[in-house]
Amino acid sequence: MTSWSTSLITLAAVAVGALLSFVSTRLTDRSRWQREESLRWDARRLDTYSEFGSALLKFINITLRISAGLGFPSGIQPLDGEAGRPALAAAGTELNVQWERILLLGSPDAIIAARTWQEGAFHLEYFARQLRSDPAEFAKARQDIREARRRFYSTARADLGITSGDIPADIYAPGNWRTLIGPEPQAPDPEL
User: Fold this and answer.
1) SS3 state at 61
2) 3-class DSSP state for residue 141?
3) Is residue 14 within a helix (H) or strand (E), and if so which, with residue range?
4) Whole-angstrom Cα distance, residue 50 to residue 56?
5) Cα dist. 48→15, 64, 79, 130, 191 in Å?
6) For the residues 20-34, what does the mean pLDDT come to?
7) pLDDT of 53-93, one tens digit each?
8) Residues 70, 127 contacting (CB under 8 angstroms)
9) CB pairs under 8 A, 24+ apart, for 23-32?
10) Are 59 and 91 within 8 A, CB to CB?
11) Cα separations (Å) of 53 from 115, 148, 153, 161?
């Protein structure tokens, strides 16, 4: 082989090596960017889901406290309706802000689950605003909201890729300490 052909082969080998190095680096950088981008959006979705859950739980808590003040069984500190309505309005405003974030960042399944849970909260709000009054319907609404909450968190966990298992169904069972203090105190009979 002549020196010219040797030089050409060497130059071609260097060019192929440079091209392979460029392609390898490009693929590695792209893979890293995609991984970082995915983690960034996962973190934002996690924040969105948890902030929506917190806002909705605050809204529900206020509705239950007002409802307890109206005589519905809830096992929570009652709140006078006059004092509670401004807090309920403020919680509703925050809930609307968090709902918009769910619409923006949530998966379709998480959006549906969030809306179902939110609708359950709005059902309870009707009792707090004295637009509904049936105790059996109130008890059913509370049960429905528990199930909607469980579905929302299960859907959110699936969307975030959390594979540690399902949320246990018995997390709403009363703790053993409650049996030590006896039954819930009953309101005095107004006839006495």
Assistant:
1) helix
2) helix
3) helix 3-69
4) 10
5) 49, 24, 29, 31, 50
6) 72
7) 999 999 999 999 999 999 998 788 999 988 899 999 999 99
8) yes
9) none
10) yes
11) 11, 11, 9, 18
